[in-house]
């Protein structure tokens, strides 16, 4: 007989008791029979190297704070008040009511129309009929049979049905009235009605002012007097600055945000710009004496705790809500390793000294004194004290200084007037900017496009429906007689890519003396229709994100910096945002977010092909 040996690998990863009886009373007592084992565990955890310095029982802190008073986006400087969340001031975009010469945002147009009819109906029950009978305030139904100029409406059956139903019922277009009341040379609300009473006309005109104020309160939008210049389309980011007075001579500390796209503003979005000591001139800007505050308060320090924190005692049962032992970091996961070390070893070494700061302030801790149980008073210095360029310096929640000059580190604490929570709607528009290495191009793929009704639709479906609608306007070609010995292949110059794929081609940067730097320029693909004998039209983007400058007269070229589209690509989406501020006021606006994409893609674009003849 021959014996078969099976290789085995044995290991032990834990020590635990194995009681041999059903009585667990003695096992649960956790009797220690080897005191040397306890001493060895203390040595292993470094407890013999500990220093009993005493626990803090009292802390005194002195903080000096100033207020953010100015805000600048582009070339426009304005006062920064805390009555409005900073996200709203930075992000708010205009609601698109016209896109490519077509009226869109039908849902908001109808909302405005219903509100106006309610307002004038309280004055005279016959007034709503006068406004709905005027063609300038009504929504026109698409032509039947469909015509080519209305293909963007009639290509989508639900949009066509909704517009036809609303047009036949003479619903009022409230935005047409709003545009009349807010244009450069405004016309009163009673201009086009036939009411004979002058008093009634004046009442309607007063309602027009209330109507404008109602809509501007409902949605936060940029105005002609204060346009929002923070959004930089060539970077796909927001850029802005704010400042706070720091001395009596008018000096200011300028904070700059050069790449904000996250959706939530906090201290890490801004850096200190020491090249400027003043942001700009604002009328009635408060001085340092008006906004400066000093606090000196005493506190009882309390140990810091967090959910799932390990117990500091050996024989304590934990709730196991957080299994720190289950974390499996990779060799490059330095952040995970630091987090585990903090949670397992140094978690009970931190104390909290709570301090309340006013919203929108820039604070500096001038002094912190701590008294321990032995009666010793210890002066605490900030961990980040030193030179800003010192790589050994450690700090948290401190602002970075732009540039690489060897200057003292700034220890200011910034508390922005930012919303604690923002609700976001479904995407009105969404685009993926990705690289196509096979075609050696960058593409802007419209994954969600807005429709005329105000709703959105997947870009693939909307592009296919629009292409099929344009194809319907091309008459079928006459039948061709069969040719003897006809070739079974055909030559194709270029194939067709989906309509939601918008190309970006490389272009040289103007003013570059080396002529080597490039940027991305928005281009267009031809709409290749079967049997079309005319010159193919260009496929235009259907989102405002990629239509930048296209609706201007004349149209502007859209350039995008090449470094903004990495190999992983980027995702840009536009949606409604909503938040409630500390005074209870609700703010709704349109904001833009940018995230990392899904990698590279392939459009299928090809030239000079020999294909089987159909």
Primary descriptors:
12 helices; 19% helix; single chain; 614 residues; globular; alpha+beta; 24% strand
How are the secondary structure elements laid out?
Elements: H1 25-28, H2 35-44, E1 56-67, E2 70-73, E3 76-79, H3 86-91, E4 98-99, E5 102-103, H4 106-121, H5 127-133, H6 151-154, H7 157-168, H8 174-182, H9 198-218, E6 231-232, E7 237-245, E8 252-260, E9 271-272, H10 288-291, E10 293-299, E11 302-303, H11 334-344, E12 351-352, E13 361-372, E14 377-379, E15 400-401, E16 413-415, E17 423-424, E18 429-436, E19 441-450, E20 456-458, H12 459-472, E21 489-494, E22 501-508, E23 518-522, E24 559-560, E25 570-580, E26 586-596, E27 607-612
Helix pairs in contact: 4-8, 4-9
| Residues in β-strands, percent | 15-25%
What oligomeric state is this?
single chain
Number of helices: 12
Number of strands: 27
The main β sheet shows up as:
9 strands, antiparallel
Helix share, percent: 10-25%
Cα-based radius of gyration, to the nearest Å: 34 Å
CA(first)-CA(last) distance: 74 Å
Estimated structural class: alpha+beta
pLDDT averaged residue by residue: 88
Structure description:
By secondary structure, the chain is an alpha+beta fold. The protein is built from twelve helices and 27 strands. β2 and β3 form a beta hairpin. The protein is globular, with a radius of gyration of 34 Å. The N and C termini lie far apart (74 Å).
Short account of what is shown:
It contains twelve helices and 27 strands. The protein has helices at 25-28, 35-44, 86-91, 106-121, 127-133, 151-154, 157-168, 174-182, 198-218, 288-291, 334-344, 459-472; strands at residues 56-67, 70-73, 76-79, 98-99, 102-103, 231-232, 237-245, 252-260, 271-272, 293-299, 302-303, 351-352, 361-372, 377-379, 400-401, 413-415, 423-424, 429-436, 441-450, 456-458, 489-494, 501-508, 518-522, 559-560, 570-580, 586-596, 607-612.
């Amino acid at each position: 007989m021959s014996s078969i040996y099976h290789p085995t690998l044995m290991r032990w990863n834990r020590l635990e008791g194995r009681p041999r009886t059903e009585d667990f009373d003695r096992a649960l007592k956790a009797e220690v029979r080897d005191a040397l084992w306890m001493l060895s565990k203390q040595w292993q955890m470094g407890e013999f190297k500990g220093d009993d310095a005493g626990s803090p029982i009292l802390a005194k802190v002195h903080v000096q704070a100033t207020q953010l008073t100015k805000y600048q986006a582009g070339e426009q400087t304005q006062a920064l008040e805390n009555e409005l969340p900073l996200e709203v001031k930075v992000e708010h975009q205009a609601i698109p009511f016209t896109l490519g010469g077509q009226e869109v945002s039908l849902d908001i147009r109808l909302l405005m129309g219903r509100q106006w009819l309610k307002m004038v109906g309280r004055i005279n029950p016959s007034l709503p009929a006068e406004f709905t009978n005027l063609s300038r305030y009504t929504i026109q139904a698409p032509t039947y049979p469909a015509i080519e100029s209305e293909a963007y409406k009639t290509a989508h059956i639900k949009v066509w049905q909704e517009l036809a139903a609303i047009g036949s019922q003479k619903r009022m277009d409230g935005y047409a009235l709003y545009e009349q009341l807010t244009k450069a040379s405004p016309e009163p609300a009673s201009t086009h009605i036939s009411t004979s009473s002058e008093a009634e006309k004046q009442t309607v005109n007063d309602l027009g002012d209330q109507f404008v104020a109602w809509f501007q309160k409902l949605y936060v939008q940029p105005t002609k007097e204060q346009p929002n210049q923070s959004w930089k389309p060539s970077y796909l980011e927001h850029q802005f600055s704010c400042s706070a007075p720091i001395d009596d001579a008018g000096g200011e500390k300028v904070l700059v945000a050069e790449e904000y796209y996250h959706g939530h503003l906090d201290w890490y979005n801004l850096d200190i710009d020491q090249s400027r000591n003043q942001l700009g001139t604002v009328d009635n800007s408060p001085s340092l004496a008006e906004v400066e505050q000093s606090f000196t308060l005493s506190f009882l320090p309390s140990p810091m705790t967090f959910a799932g924190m390990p117990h500091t005692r050996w024989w304590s049962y934990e709730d196991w809500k957080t299994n720190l032992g289950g974390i499996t970091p990779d060799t490059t996961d330095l952040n995970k390793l630091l987090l585990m070390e903090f949670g397992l070893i140094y978690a009970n070494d931190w104390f909290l000294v709570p301090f309340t700061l006013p919203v929108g302030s820039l604070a500096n801790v001038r002094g912190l004194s701590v008294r321990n149980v032995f009666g010793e008073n210890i002066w605490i210095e900030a961990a980040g004290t030193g030179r800003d360029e010192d790589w050994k310096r450690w700090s948290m929640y401190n602002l970075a200084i732009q540039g690489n000059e060897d200057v003292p580190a700034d220890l200011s604490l910034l508390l922005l007037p930012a919303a604690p929570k923002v609700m976001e709607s479904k995407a009105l528009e969404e685009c993926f900017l990705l690289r196509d290495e096979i075609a050696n191009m960058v593409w802007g793929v419209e994954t969600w496009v807005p429709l005329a009704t105000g709703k959105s639709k997947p870009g693939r479906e909307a592009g296919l429906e629009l292409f099929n609608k344009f194809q319907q306007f091309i008459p079928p070609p006459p039948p061709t007689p069969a040719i003897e010995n006809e070739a079974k292949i055909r030559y194709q110059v270029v194939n067709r890519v989906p309509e939601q794929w918008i190309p970006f081609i490389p272009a040289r940067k103007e003013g570059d003396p080396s002529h080597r730097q490039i940027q991305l320029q928005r281009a267009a693909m031809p709409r290749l229709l079967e049997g079309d004998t005319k010159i193919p039209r260009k496929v235009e983007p259907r989102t405002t994100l990629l239509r930048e400058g296209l609706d201007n007269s004349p149209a502007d070229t859209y350039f995008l910096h090449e470094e903004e589209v990495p190999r992983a690509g980027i995702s840009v989406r536009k949606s409604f945002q909503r938040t409630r501020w500390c005074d209870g006021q609700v703010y709704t606006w349109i904001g833009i977010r940018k995230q990392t994409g899904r990698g590279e893609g392939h459009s299928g674009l090809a030239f000079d092909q020999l294909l089987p003849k159909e």
